[in-house]
Specification:
The protein has about 270 residues and is an alpha+beta fold. The chain has 2 domains: about 70 residues, Winged helix-like DNA-binding domain superfamily/Winged helix DNA-binding domain (Arc Repressor Mutant, subunit A); about 190 residues, Beta-Lactamase, CATH 3.30.450. It has 8 helices and 9 strands. A 6-stranded antiparallel beta sheet has the order 6-5-4-9-8-7, with helices on both faces. A 3-stranded antiparallel beta sheet has the order 1-3-2. A hairpin with a 2-residue loop joins strand 4 and strand 5. Helix 1 packs across helix 3 and helix 2 packs across helix 3. It is globular and about 60 Å long.
Amino acid sequence: MWKEHQQGSVNSSQMALRTVSLVAQRGSITVTELAQSLGVAVSTAHRVLANCCETGYTLQPERGGPYLAGPALHELTLSITGATTLRDAADGPVQELADQTGETVNVAVLEGRKIRFVQSVPGIRPRHVGPRLGETYPAHCTAAGKAMLAYETAEEFAERYRGHKLEALTPRSITGWACLANELAEIRARGWAYSVGETDEAVSAIAAAVVLSTGRSAAAIAIAMPTSRLATRREFAEISGPLLRTTTLVQRRLRGAREGAAAARYGAPLDE
């Protein structure tokens, strides 16, 4: 009996690890897809995914929808191949941007339909916005989230928002699908996104995506401040310059680190 129990535990662990690996590779997975990949019953696949959700390695933004990478998987993946690199690449530039503007500067990543702030440098100006390290918000309501969503393909965007449901946090939050799609097109053309009172009526933000050489966004850098200091086109235009310069610097550092690591892994000279 002990041996059977031990064997069952090992199999469960193996299935969980395989599930996490599949989600990391594909970006999302359904119960049926997992059942086919593992060669198990749908009920077993559902139980494995439920356990992965409980531990934070997967999440299911919409009931009945696909399962995505959860915060625990995101942290693990980044800590091994990207998170440390992202933090190292952004740390100095983000601090310099906060010093230059006196405002709070955040670094965010996408998690399903939400963003999570993974770095935050508080501002020094009076009435600055407090740091939001670790906090999550609906992506479509934030400058950082919109900046990253703008770099998704139409297929990726539609899959992320199956049903086209957009949660409203304030009366200023975007809830119209066409309105969001039009704004993302403008962001792609302009290079930065903004929000005015969409998550908190007293807070505005401007953000730009950190884009990898593949064309995918790895993160976004956002400057947050009271709406009283950031609400007009002129104010956004003035602060966009320092933001874009910082984002460009982080992109160069991040791309160089990843491309250099890939070259080293495959034995190519780093100076080629």
